[in-house]
Every structure is written in C-alpha cells, then in structure tokens.
Design a protein that fits this description.
It is a single chain. This protein has about 280 residues and is α/β, with parallel strands linked by helices. The protein contains 7 helices and 16 strands.
C-alpha cells in the first residue's frame, strides 16, 4: 500500500503518497497534530486553498513528478495533483473497494455494475477485477480519460469497462427508456456540480429524485446491491441508509458507517459516510 495518513490536526492532514509527503486541507481535523513541527515541515508539497474553492500547490524540497503510480493493494492508480488539491483517488473508499472485490462475484456470472460520478475509476477497477461488466459514467472527459489510464496500469484486470462521458441524470434516463437493468449501482455524488451544458447538481435537492431514477434500472428479480458514499456535511450514515431503504428496499441488509482512514499513529480519521444495501 503506497498511501499512509501520517497525522492530522490544525485543519490539515499529512500524507505519504508513494515517494512523496504532502500536506492538504482537512477542515474537520480541528484537533492538535501528534507529530512534531519538524515532521510536518519536511514535505514535498502543501496545498493552500483560496476563497474561490480552488487553490494552489506550494512545492518544496524539489516538489513532485507531474504524475506517478501508486499501489493501493487492489489495483494501481495514477496520481496527478490537481488545482483543487485532489490526487486522483480517495483513500477513505478503501472499505468499499474491499467489499466490491470480495462480494461482486456473488451477484451472478459477470454481473452488470453501474458506477456513477465515477471519477478516476477506482470502484470501476475493483468491480471489474471481481468479474463484473462495468459501465463507468462521469461528466468530465478528462476524468474518464484518467480512468482509462488507470485501467492500463492493471493488466490483470479484464477490460470489461464501458466508458461513458455524460451527465449522469441524462444517462440514467436513457437507460430507463432502453430498458437496461443492472445488478449493482455505485455512486459517490458531489455536494455541488455543474455539467458541460450548464446543468446544476445540488445534493440536497437532487439526490432523492435521482435515486428514484436509479431504482428503475436495478434488476430486482435477481440479487442486487447499491453503494452510496458522500462527503457532504449533514449526510450521515443514517441519512444515506434511509435514502437507500426508502427508494430500493427496506428488507435488504444495510451496512453503513463513516468512511475512516487509519492514521499511522493509531487514530482514525473520518472522511465522509457510506451506506451499502444488499438484497439477495
């Protein structure tokens, strides 16, 4: 595993990502760090956020390469620091990748899995490596291209991923008209988003009607699963669980919790919520 959360505190997190040590914002890390100031100072880069929601990287000690590969246990991924402070993967999703690797094969031979808001494709890789035929959907062409690069780093993963660059709501509506059905749906919706044609996504307004659309393309005659994760304040594990139960089924098995990253010092860092619904 080429990712280690070394420490957190003072609204920041100290991370080791492959050969590089970086500091990024973490607004919920309101406690004091464990490691010394010297440990926090010996980094290759610091991301400094600005009032627009973006920010800039401040490179130190020679900086970092434009991109590099990391081993995340289940697959390799390409890291590229972005203008928003992202790196191309979210380590708090580890338990969901682990679940997909372990359980997807139980939903039939080559089950159909839909990954929405799919970003750089970590969950797509996890599902495909477990035998699924995956449909990967993201509105940003650059992210879909990045996900394709990630697949190329994993020769052992079958090329069972269909790549779609589109607004997720438009895509799901088309799938409804086509009569398409899936054995699993994965989604990690943002708090706010804007499509290429000006479409606006607000999580608190749009998530319930969007899940109702998704409910029309899940194959309820066979075992199925839905995984939702969220980084938005107020969308707790219990909120996500209620959404899944109300839309899909109240009789399935629900697994919910905080998405946690284990720090090297033994503490846990909370980075969002998840809920998984399994109906067998």
């Amino acid at each position: 595993m080429d990712y280690i959360l070394l420490d957190s505190g003072n609204k920041k997190k100290l991370e080791q990502i492959g050969p590089y040590r970086l500091v990024r914002p973490a607004q919920n890390a309101v406690w004091k760090p464990v490691l010394s100031e010297a440990e926090w100072a010996g980094v290759n880069g610091i991301f400094e956020r600005d009032s627009t929601g973006g920010g800039r990287w401040k490179w130190l000690r020679g900086g970092v390469a434009p991109s590099w590969n990391v081993d995340l246990d289940f697959f390799n991924m390409l890291v590229k620091p972005t203008d928003f402070g992202h790196l191309g993967f979210f380590p708090e999703q580890y338990s969901n990748w682990q679940w997909l690797k372990k359980n997807v094969s139980g939903f039939g031979a080559q089950p159909k899995v839909l990954n929405l808001f799919a970003y750089s494709g970590a969950s797509s890789l996890a599902a495909a490596s477990a035998g699924a035929n995956v449909c990967h959907v993201d509105a940003a062409k650059g992210m879909v291209d990045w996900a394709k690069e990630n697949l190329k780093l994993n020769s052992e993963i079958p090329e069972r991923i269909r790549w779609i660059t589109d607004d997720v709501i438009k895509f799901v509506n088309r799938e409804i008209r086509r009569g398409s059905l899936y054995n699993g749906i994965i989604l990690d919706p943002p708090s706010f988003g804007r499509g290429s044609q000006g479409q606006v996504w607000k999580l608190e307004d749009d998530i319930m009607p969007f899940l109702e659309l998704c409910g029309q393309i899940i194959d309820k005659k066979s075992p199925y699963f839905v995984i939702i994760s969220c980084h938005s304040q107020g969308f707790s594990p219990s909120v996500l669980s209620r959404l899944l139960c109300d839309v899909f089924s109240s009789k399935g098995e629900i697994q919910s919790g905080e998405m946690l990253i284990n720090e090297k010092n033994g503490r846990e860092f909370a980075a969002g919520s998840y809920s998984r619904l399994l109906c067998r």
